[in-house]
Amino acid sequence: MGKLIVFGFAFLAMSAWAAGPNCAEAPMTVDKLEAIVQSGNVHSQQDFLDAIPRDSMRLFTFVTNSLSLQRGFGDGKVSPMWPRVLRSTSDGKITISFVCDPRNPSYGKVEVLYFDEKTNELKSVEWDLGRKGKIAQPTERIHRDPISCASCHAGSTFSGKASLKFNWPDYNIWGDCQRNRGITAYGADDDIMSSVNSRLDDNDRLTHPQVAEADCTQEADLAAHLQEAADYANFRNQQKDNPCFKSLPWSEDPNDKSFPYRNDAMNNNLGRRPNALLTINYARWLARRNVQLFKNNPAYPVMKYFLAMNGIGCSLEESDRKKIGKVIGVTPSSSDNLSWTYGKAIGFQDKDWTLEFHLNGDTQYILGLGDAETVTTMVNGEVIKEIRTNDPAIQSAGSDSDIFVHDYNPGYDDAGSLSCVFDIAKVADMFNGWKNGPECDALRAAGNKAFDQYSSQAISCNPTDNPTAVSKLTDEVDMVIPKLDQASVDRGRKLVRPDSKGKCIMCHSAGVDSGLPPDFRFVPDEEADASKLEESHAVLHARVQEGFLKTLDYRLIKTATMPPLENSLSAQDREDIKAYIESMAK
């Protein structure tokens, strides 16, 4: 590239590019960034930032109130004049965050969250580039999977490992009337960063859980917006010569005072909506992560067909729901969102469906780009897209594949240049005319076939007069309810108590206020009154008939995803709890 000429916050280069993020930006990987981190020419955070090619990672925003460990304190606390910087690839696959205030204890440390498409999981790393006078050596700068990242970004635990997720408020609330609370970014409403008012006419905004929690009025919300716009102008002016902020890929137009945000509500370029882009990107990767966790479960080869049926609005018949119950141990109702039901059965918690850092009771994370864009619709879309791509029987169903599933591409002026963002398979309302049509029949047939194969691999009971077959049947029954060690049962009886390590009764016993559905109250509390004890026994016995003990073994022993709460259960403890529950199932 040619020599850079600095003009305030504008950067003019001999090799020019259009302002804002797009899918033609120079590609970037974590490996390339780490090569810069470990370069002998990089001796500080500033050296690192200056070395990032300006035609890469062109999506950025500023967080003025942070809940992260980079928030700092005292004079070094993140603020409108010293915001935390989020810089990302246009598709959101890599995000780096840093602060520019040397008074902040996190100055010199770059936090990184990136989505690994090989494993479909979010990973973290910290690059410690040192403070002035304390420069880390290249070999000492990289800290992978730091505990500090997991403490904030952990979703549920699977196979003993926390599955990470991004934290980011949903559309379109990136701030409210109380600017010193929650995660607040410049462009706090619809990415508008000028004195033009959009909030006063947005009545829906006031009912959003975050805004309602802040007890905002229209007047207070408008005042916050106007102050935010004034602060941004002041920030741009005061920090125009700060090399840390200068390192960002700013607009080349020196008069573009709102960049990277839009200057009014009529601007229909998504490239001027960094907070909205981060919302779309992070929700997409959360959906990809959730689908992978679904796939990791042995029930997925059956469940994917029923998930697709539920996603396009097919009616799940009673026989379908019974098959699902036998596979995952939970029989959904006719009104259940099957993705949620399946998720709960394999260890998901509410936080796995949202990027909100603190839940406010609304776990349907909204993209806000149309009607009903949530993480669950994207999960359904990803499952349908996979089936549509790989299953010949489904490919031939219906007369128009575009009606079955299509790629979502809203009408932004620059949507074409951001095509890498819109590769989300989305279930659309147009399916209303196709419910219970050829697609539903094809999916049900494929699901029934997969269920039969799954059942034959589990237990095959064909009693005959042949002594060998009878002996085999006896062995298979013992697999379902094995012979139990009484000492193990007695230890398990103590472990499920609320005052012990397992605490199973706190969530899974009749009569407790855990918020779980009745099917989850399967642990008898022998100290409860007779009616509650009998109720848990009845639930457990019913679920055993549906194959629940296989699920119990998978969740409690094989993957250690039960209980989801932090615990110190040993392998023997888990076997003992399993033995106790199995003894209650006899």
CA radius of gyration is 27 Å
What's the count of strands? 13
| Shape designation | globular
Structural class from helices and strands?
alpha+beta
Quote the distance from N terminus to C terminus.
75 Å
Hey, roughly how much beta strand do the residues contain? 5-15%
Q: Indicate the low-confidence ranges by residue numbers.
A: 1-17, 399-406, 428-435, 459-482
Largest sheet: 7 strands, antiparallel
**Taking strands numbered 1, 2, ... along the chain, how are they ordered across the largest sheet?**
8-7-6-5-4-3-11
| Mean pLDDT score | 81
Number of helices: 21
Query: Helix coverage percent of residues?
Result: 25-40%
Assembly state: single chain
Give structural attributes.
single chain; 586 residues; alpha+beta; 7-stranded antiparallel sheet; two-stranded antiparallel sheet; 13 strands; 39% helix; disordered N terminus
